[in-house]
Amino acid sequence: MVIPENNLLCKVIDGKKVLAASYSQIDTFVQCPYKWYKTYVEGHRSTEKHEATSYGTVIHQTMEYFFKNGCRPSYEDMSKAFNYYADIEKIPFDSVKSQIESMQHAARLIRWIVGLFEKDAAGNYKKVWSDLTPMEKVIRGSRPAGVEEDFVLPYKLPKPLTLDGVTYDKVHIIGSVDWRGEYKTKDRTAMYTIDWKSGRKLFDKDKLLHNLQHPIYAFYIYRKYKVLPDMCSYFFTRMLDNQNVKVDKEKVERSVKELNDILLDMYDFETNKIDSYQAHVWNDAKQGYKYETRYLTGRQPACLEPRPKPLCFWCDFSTHKQGTCRYSSDWDESKRKNKKD
Ligand code: SF4
Fold first, then answer.
1. 327 lines ligand 1 (CB under 6 A)
2. Contact in structure between 57 and 210 (CB atoms under 8 Å)
3. Does ligand 1 lie within 6 Å of residue 312's CB atom?
4. 146 CB under 6 A from ligand 1?
5. What is the predicted pLDDT for the residue at 337?
6. Above 60 in pLDDT, residue 339?
7. Index of the ligand 1 atom closest to the CA of residue 325
8. Hey, whose CA ends up nearest to atom 5 of ligand 1?
9. Count of CB atoms within 10 A of residue 173's CB?
């Protein structure tokens, strides 16, 4: 396979061109390899803003402001910070309803985080320790040792990749840990990591089990601090709810295997491993969308596998946007009532 010159597979880090991938790039591949191919190999990276990512950016910036200012900003300070970042970001809300909901969610998040650290005139926390949830105890009881802590993690490829005559034996995974807290016990320092999520739903069981975001953070933390985090949490800022992942040695081994399998497919431009995909199509008889096996024109590398689903609606290449993906599902929001999705 010929790799277009304008591919986005490499970055210059410390003056050297290296193979690089962010967690979001890896996640794009997991969601739909063909979308990854169009974005990072063909170089059609989207410049269009989406509500989900823009709103998430503003929430991250607002939380960063709180923790980088010693957990002292008041409700008014935080509201001003949120409005300031939102003004710059110009979040493209999908609808007025979504905008109103998102503003309510942000206000509730701000009330919650400010309330967690609020003190009375005598200097005591207004919210007593025994009333806190386990997650709140982690946040208030730890020292925020890292806030939006950037990292570059060299990771050995399961199989070297040759691009443009240069052979790479590792990929540099680039990321940022949203929040890393440290808590000193009698004999050691316990570590926690949190990733702020701004989606409207908690992860399902499968996503929670296989999501590689916290394992990748844990690889970095282990490399830098020589310990694995005691607990890793996805904190859903719209619901003020969290899901935890324990990244112990066993989980690390499983995650390394999962990541290696992904990288093998992602950077395999030569082996024609697939000849079919699961199309997401309307079925008249069932009056709903179904997955059906369809055949590709000849065998192709795994990185070209399309994985159409309702999410195509938000993909830049879908029939609803640029129309450059011939595998796109034509599902749209009006079909949401259909439970068969
Ligand atoms: S439209 Fe759907 S199938 Fe096509 S690239 Fe996007 S997510 Fe993949």
1. yes
2. no
3. yes
4. no
5. 60
6. no
7. 4
8. 35
9. 22
